[in-house]
Design a protein that fits this description.
Udp-n-acetylmuramoylalanyl-d-glutamate--2,6- Diaminopimelate Ligase, Chain: A, domain 1; alpha/beta; UDP N-Acetylglucosamine Acyltransferase, domain 1; single chain; 5 helices; 3 domains; ten-stranded parallel β-sheet
């Protein structure tokens, strides 16, 4: 596939500076690009790569007025580049088509238009799949589950019974949605399982990475809000509610019944204890441990998580502990010497 820079600029509504007849045959990062590729620059720290990149063209912000090669200027270079990536990738990705003969479908399964089901998929009774939804090989869809339109379920995903997934959702391989919540009652030293009879609701435009586990609620619903993006290796416990357009990065763990607002970011390896409220717009820094509720529009870090400015001061003090230890030892010796001198003078 190839497109002229003029055609690409029209697609992303950008302004070209330079030769608009340059032919683009691929997409790549600014460091990895080769001639024929188009790349992008969104982070100012990569500005030096404008001179070094081998790409044939660069998508940039309007702050950059010139470059040694053609550029396309627009307000959001990352979003523009994403559209270009989708343009080129649609000719590379080959999704399953039709229903493979090895797929097993239960009773009263409802299939929308243009549904695709790959090899060895198991779909239990009373499942409903919306138009243009694609299920890759080896996945399991439990009874009475509902999956909306234009949703993409990659290989070896498990979606348990009665789970409800919206439109334009993407679920990557190895993920389990609707597994039992971790609920046990301890009586006389023995752990007795508490039935988990609720469900999971995944709203529209959610992306879920590989090997994510989202547990079903004990009675009600575990909810992932519209537009939220979840990275790989994330654990979301029973009865958690995550609002719209939040970001949950890799290796995050969120304990049961925690309520997370809209536009929240949990950075890598951070976590939250159960039964907390995390307000809208909160940013939880990497490896932070949230053990109490956080008001809206706050950034926290450290363990236990605290306002980021305070956490930075605490961390700075901790880094100075070796010097402080030496200082205290030095002062201790001087005090001992002074006490010994005073005792001799007596």
């Amino acid at each position: 596939m190839q497109k002229t820079l003029r055609e690409i600029a029209a697609l992303i509504d950008g302004e070209i500076i330079g030769d608009d007849n340059v032919v683009i045959t691929g997409v790549a990062g600014i460091k990895e690009a080769v001639p024929g590729d188009i790349t992008f620059l969104a982070n100012p720290k990569y500005i030096p790569f404008i001179e070094k990149t081998k790409a044939s063209a660069i998508i940039v912000s309007p702050d950059i007025k010139s470059a040694p090669k053609p550029i396309i200027c627009l307000e959001n270079p990352s979003l523009g580049f994403e559209k270009v990536v989708l343009l080129f990738s649609q000719f590379r990705v080959r999704h399953p088509k039709g229903i493979h003969p090895t797929a097993v479908l239960g009773k009263d399964v409802s299939l929308g238009k243009n549904v695709a089901i790959g090899p060895y998929v198991i779909i239990e009774d009373d499942v409903c799949l919306g138009d243009n939804t694609i299920i890759y090989a080896g996945s399991y869809i439990g009874h009475s589950a509902k999956i909306g339109c234009d949703t993409l379920i990659y290989a070896n995903v498990t979606i348990r019974e009665s789970v409800n997934i919206g439109n334009r959702v993407v679920v990557h391989s190895g993920t389990v949605i609707g597994s039992d919540g971790f609920g046990f009652a301890t009586i006389n030293g023995k752990h007795h399982r508490i039935p988990q009879i609720g469900t999971v609701v995944i709203e529209d435009d959610v992306d879920i990475g590989s090997n994510v586990t989202i547990d079903r609620a004990r009675f009600d619903k575990t909810i992932i809000g519209k537009g939220t993006k979840i990275d790989n290796l994330v654990q979301i416990a029973h009865n958690v509610v995550i609002g719209e357009n939040s970001i949950i990065v890799a290796q995050v763990g969120i304990s049961g019944s925690t309520n997370i607002g809209n536009g929240v970011t949990f950075a890598g390896q951070s976590g939250a204890a159960g039964h907390l409220t995390v307000g809208d717009g909160v940013i939880v820094a990497g490896r932070a441990g949230v053990i109490k509720s956080i008001p809206a529009n706050t950034m926290v870090s450290g363990f236990p998580a605290k306002p980021h400015e305070i956490a930075k001061k605490v961390n700075a003090c901790v880094q100075n502990l070796p010097k402080l230890y030496e200082k205290v030892n030095s002062l201790k010796k001087k005090i001992e010497e002074l006490e010994a001198k005073l005792n001799r003078e007596k």
